[in-house]
Structures
1.
Amino acid sequence: MMKLGQTDISIGKIAFGCWRFAGHDVSEADRLIRTALDAGMSLIDTADIYGFDEFPHLEDKGFGQAELRLGEVLAAAPSLRKQMILATKGGIDAVRPYDSSYTYLMRAVEASLERLHTDYVDLYQIHRPDLTTPMTEVARALNDMVESGKVRTIGVSNFTVPQMRALQVHLKHPLVTLQPEFSALEQTPLENGILDFAEEIGATVMAWSPLAGGKIPQTDGPVQAVLDSLAGAYGISRSTAALAFIRGFGANVLPIVGTQNPTRITESGYAAQVNFTGREIYDVVEAYRGGRMP
Ligand SMILES: NC(=O)c1ccc[n+]([C@@H]2O[C@H](COP(=O)([O-])OP(=O)(O)OC[C@H]3O[C@@H](n4cnc5c(N)ncnc54)[C@H](OP(=O)(O)O)[C@@H]3O)[C@@H](O)[C@H]2O)c1
C-alpha cells in the first residue's frame, strides 16, 4: 500500500483506469472492477469525458458513459464503493474544448456524482489546463468542492510545472496528484520537472498510458528488448516489467492500468511486488535515450 499524496488515504500501488470502460455491459463492468480490486488496485480512475465519441447515436456522443457504467455497478453493489478510492476528472467539454470556469466545474462535479451514484469522490482532477480561465477562479471551484464535502482531495492532469505552481498558490488545499503521460516509451516527465515537482509538494504521480496505449506490448524496439530481458530475469511479462519500471523513481508513481482484459488486469497487479535495481532502471532509461547516461 502507499499513501495518496500526503494524505492519510491508503491506496494500492497500481491503479485501474476507465478510459476504455464505457462499452461494457454492467455485468462485464462489474467483473472488471472486482478483478481490479482483487488485484490490489484500490484507486479507480475515471473522467466525465470517457466514452465520448464512442456512441455517435447519442446526442452527447457518449459523454459521461464510462462514469454511468461505473455508477450502475455501484448502484447494484453499493458495498464496492467503500472498497475503492474513487477518482474522476472534469474540465474537457468536447467542444470548447477545455473549460475550468467556476460555473462549469461546479456543474460538472454535480453531474459526475449523479452518474457515479455517490455523494462524494475521493479525488477530483482538472483534466487539462484551460488557458482561458484565471487560476484564481479554478482554485475557487476546487476549494469549494472540498469545503462542500463533494470531493475529499484534488489534483490535476496534463498541467505543466508553472501551471501547477500558479494554481497551487491560490488553493487552500494541497494538490495530492499530478497526472502526466508516463511510460518506458514516453519518459518526458523525467526531464520536464514533473516528477521533481511532485517530490517538492509531496504529490503522487498518476502515470497515464503506462504501456504507451498498447505500443509496449504490441511493438518491438530497443526499450522493449530491455524490458524483455528484465521480464525474463524476474519471471514476469513485458507489460508487468513496464509497469514496475515507472515505479522505480524518486517520486511516488502510481501506474494507471488501462487493459480491459481480466487476465491482464490480474497480471498487472504483480507489478506492485517488483522492485528493479537502479542499474536496471537506468538500462531502460538509456535504451529510451539511445545512449549511456553522460
Ligand atoms: N489524464 C489523461 O489525459 C489520460 C489520458 C489517457 C489515459 N488516462 C488514464 O490512464 C488509463 C490507462 O491508459 P491506457 O488505457 O492508454 O493504458 P495502457 O496500459 O498504456 O494501454 C492500454 C491498451 O493496451 C492494450 N494492451 C495491454 N496489454 C496488452 C497486451 N499484452 N497485448 C496487447 N495489447 C495490450 C489494451 O488492450 P486490452 O484492453 O485488449 O488489453 C489497451 O488497449 C486510462 O484508463 C485513464 O484512466 C488519462
Note: The pocket of NAP is lined by residues 17-20, 45, 157-158, 179, 208-214, 217-218, 239, 256-261, 264 (CB under 6 Å).
2.
Amino acid sequence: MDKGRLIARYEQRLPRYTSYPTAPHFGPSVDAATYAAWLAALPAHETVSLYLHVPFCRTLCRFCGCHTTAVNNPATLASYAGLLRTEIGLLARVIGRRLKVSHIHWGGGTPTSLAGADMIAISAALRRHFDIDAATEIAVEIDPRVLTADRLAALAAIGITRASLGVQDFDPSVQQAIGREQSFAETAEAAAALRAIGVGSLNLDLLYGLPYQSEAGLRATVRAALSLQPDRLAVFGYAHVPWMQRHQALIPEAALPDTIARFHQRELAERLIAEAGYTPIGLDHFARAEDRMAVAARAGGLRRNFQGYTTDQATALIGLGASAIGALPQGYAQNAARVPAYRAALDKGQLPVARGVALNADDRLRRAAIERVMCDLALDLPALIAAHDAAPDALDDAHPALDALAADGLIAWDGEHLAVAPTARPFLRVIAACFDRYLPRAANSPVPARHALAI
Ligand SMILES: C[S@@+](CC[C@H](N)C(=O)[O-])C[C@H]1O[C@@H](n2cnc3c(N)ncnc32)[C@H](O)[C@@H]1O
Ligand code: SF4
C-alpha cells in the first residue's frame, strides 16, 4: 500500500508510551501513604534513578508541550530550589537507607533557570542522602540561550556527564513563528563550552512539523546540527495540542505542514542523519554507533521512561519536583503538578504525591510488550508471556490489530513473533497501541483528544 493511504489509515491520536498505563489513567488512589509504602519496600540493594523537574524557563516557547512556566524572579527560583531540597530530605527519611543511584536526570522546563549555587546545593543534598559516585550518569536538559558562566561552573561542580541541548530549527522564519530565536553560533558556543567542562555525551533536540518548516530549511538545520558532531540526536514531531497547552494557540495553524508533509520531513531528517553514520534508535532518537545508547539498542538493553529512551537499567525511578513522576516496581506516582500544591504538601511534611496508578499483572505484561516494541522494534510473545507467567492467550486481544498491520506490510507477524518493517518506524506508536488495553478500540468510539497525532 502506498504511504499516503497507510498514513490516512493509521493516523490517530495516540500516547507516546513513555509509561503504561499512560498518565491520563492516573488517579487519586495512589497517594502519599501508598507511595511511602512502595518506597519503603524497595530492596536495600536496589539501584534507583532520580528525575528532578524544574518547571521554569526564561520565556515560554510557543510550541512547548512541557510542564513549565515563564519565571525570572530570583526569589521564586530560589524558593523552589529550597522545596527540592526539602523533598530530598523527606524522601530519604521515608526510604530509610542510602540507595545507590545509576542515573540522575535534571529536566524541565529549563533546570539551568536555577541559580548555580542552588543547583550545587541540590546536588549536595542528593549526595548526602543517596549513594552517588563516578559511575552515576548525570544528565541535564539545557537551553543554550541561557547558559551563563555561573550555570556552566555549577554544571561542572555537580558532575554533569551528559547534556541535552534544545535546538528545534535554525531557520529564522520558523524560529519567529515558534517564539524561539536561537542562533547557530550560540548553540555551537554552548556545545563547545559543555565539552570543555568534560561533558562526554551531547544530545541535540530537533523538531519537524513546525510552522513554515520546509524540506530545504529542515535539511539546512539537520546539516548544521550534524556539524556540531553530537553523540545523539532526538528528532521529535511537533505535538500540536492547543486544547492542553493554551500558549500553542499562538502557533499559526495555517502554516503547519500537513500529515504527508510531516512524514516527508521525518524521512528526510532520518535519511540525512543515517547517512552521517548515526544509528536510528526507537521512535525518534539517533546515536553514534559507539554511543552507549546505540550499544544498548543492539544488545536489546534499551529502556523507555518519562525522559524518552534511556540506557538506564534501574527498576525504580524516583521523581522530584512539581509534576514529576516516579515509576516503582509497584506502580506510578505523580507529584502535584502546580507549585503551590507541591509546596503545601511539603510544608506539612508530606510527600507531595497527587495521583498515580498501581500496576496489576496484566498491566506489567502489556507494559513490557509495549516497551519492547518501542525499544527493540520486535517482540517474542511466547517468551514474554512465559517470563511473566501469564496465560498463553493473555495478549490474544491484540491479534486482530496485529493481523491488520501485517496485511499492510508494517510488521512481519506469524502469530507469535513480531518484527517492525524497516520502513515502519514512524508507525511505532500505532503498533505499540495494539497492546494498550485502556485505549478505546471500537471503530466508532471517540478517540480521546488528549494525545497528539501519532505520525
Ligand atoms: C525541556 S525541553 C529541552 C531543554 C530546554 N528547555 C530547551 O528548550 O532548550 C525538551 C524538548 O522537548 C521538545 N518539545 C517541547 N515541546 C514539544 C512539542 N510540543 N512537541 C514535540 N516536542 C516538543 C523540544 O525538542 C525540547 O527541546
Ligand atoms: S522548549 Fe524548553 S525553553 Fe522552550 S518553553 Fe519548553 S521547556 Fe522552556
Note: The mean pLDDT is 95.
